[in-house]
Write a structure and sequence with these properties.
The structure is a single chain. By secondary structure, the chain is of the alpha/beta class. The chain contains 13 helices and twelve strands. The strands form three sheets. A seven-stranded mixed β-sheet has the order 2-8-7-6-5-3-4, sandwiched between helices. A three-stranded antiparallel β-sheet has the order 9-10-12. A two-stranded parallel sheet has the order 1-11. Strand 5, helix 6 and strand 6 form a beta-alpha-beta unit. The relative contact order is 0.17. Bound molecules: pyridoxal-5'-phosphate (PLP).
């Protein structure tokens, strides 16, 4: 199998699975228990938290484990609106956020909020200026993702944070960094964002585990889950110890030789651009700068057919985000591309293990698809 869909999820290294098994089978206690097995596990959870927090560039006390990136996004949106309920009912976000943010904002709309979904240009870009212009005195929250999961565009979070501090210091800033964590350099503690969401399974950790950084400007954050007081009383529920251990192990593995890994991925992405550009009609989509995501289109050749054809040859790519399940992507729609171009958009996403040969095989399969199938649109 040739796996080029790391932005959907990454393969789990053996060492991550082993670390999880060790906790599941060997350290099965409850971290809240007051005897040694529990107390020891509680200490372990704090060490794992420190590992993830160090990689994220923040104080471990400000990092809360969640059940996934979606949970972190939902929590950030609702907690920011809760803190700033006195300020107003206005949210600024983009039309190209992951559905975890879009749908949380839609839910806030049903609670009477007005939401500005900023449109990108045709390259998928969103500027800090554009975001700041949309901010009003009653803006409770600005939520802009760090790296777009379908296009690979990197958005100017630090610039937005600086501008926001000058224009409307009470407005809280959230960034969904699920595709940015250990892919592009940043430190959550210095970024200027009040909430930063990450997810374990994009970097080789288990699915069903994530974390949310909550910065010091968020006073008495609204608990997500009330109950037994875990996660400093903000997200109750017995800690998912094996998932958290797997997350920390994945972070550790990913961090070893990280600069070389990122350079390798960026070089392979550039190589993929070169190889794919030789296919007649192929168009690059978005001005993606992230090292691991590349969107292209074969205008006239429906993306689902391409995905199915390559899939039948053991090559895994995606037609935009895996979360859309066959529905047209709102991200591609926001680019306002010609219909034939929009319907042919596919995404290749790479990981540290990806090889040149895999890119070559994928490029050849795409060329065959182009040459042997008639365009349908
Ligand atoms: N945000 C972005 C940008 C993503 O790419 C994803 C996953 O595809 C998520 C959020 C959701 O993360 P999770 O699958 O952990 O809920």
């Amino acid at each position: 199998m040739i796996y080029l869909d790391y932005a959907a999820t990454a393969p789990v290294p053996r060492a991550v699975a082993d670390a999880m098994y060790e906790v599941l089978a060997g350290q099965f206690g409850n971290p809240s228990s007051q005897y040694p097995v529990g107390l020891e596990l509680k200490k372990q959870v704090e060490l794992w938290r420190r590992t993830v927090a160090d990689a994220l560039g923040c104080d471990a006390k400000r990092l809360y484990f969640t059940s996934c990136g979606t949970e972190g996004d939902n929590w950030a949106v609702t907690a920011a609106c809760w803190q700033n309920r006195h300020l107003g009912k206005h949210i600024v976000t983009t039309a190209v956020e992951h559905s975890a943010v879009v749908e949380a904002c839609r839910w806030m709309e049903r609670q009477g909020y007005e939401v500005a979904y900023l449109k990108p240009d045709q390259g998928g870009n969103i500027t800090a200026h554009q975001v700041l212009e949309a901010v009003r005195p009653d803006t409770a929250l600005v939520s802009v993702m760090m790296v777009n999961n379908e296009l690979g565009n990197v958005y100017p979070i630090a610039g937005i944070a600086q501008g926001l501090a000058a224009k409307n210091p009470q407005t809280l800033l959230h960034t969904d960094a699920v595709q940015g964590f250990l892919e592009v350099p940043f430190a959550a503690g210095r970024l200027g964002a009040d909430f930063v969401t990450v997810s374990a399974h994009k970097i080789g950790g288990p699915k069903g585990c994530g974390a949310l950084y909550i910065g010091p400007r968020v006073r008495n954050p609204r608990p997500l889950l009330a109950g037994g007081g875990q996660e400093s009383g903000l997200r109750a529920g017995t800690e998912a110890t094996a998932q958290i251990a797997g997350f920390a192990k994945a972070v550790e593995l990913r961090q070893a030789g990280l600069p070389e890994k990122l350079t390798h991925m960026a070089e392979l992405r550039a190589y993929a651009v070169e190889r794919l550009s030789a296919i007649p009609d192929l168009t690059l989509i978005g001005d993606g700068q992230a090292p691991h995501i590349l969107a292209v289109s074969l205008p006239g050749w429906p993306s689902q057919n391409i995905v199915n054809d390559l899939g039948s040859q053991g090559i895994c790519i995606s037609a935009g985000s895996a979360c859309h399940q066959g529905k047209p992507s709102h991200v591609v729609a926001a680019l306002k591309l010609p219909k034939r171009t929009a319907s042919g958009v596919i995404r290749l996403s790479l990981g540290p293990e990806t090889t040149r040969e895999e890119i070559d095989d994928c490029a050849e399969a795409l060329r065959r698809h182009h040459d042997q199938r008639m365009p349908m649109l």
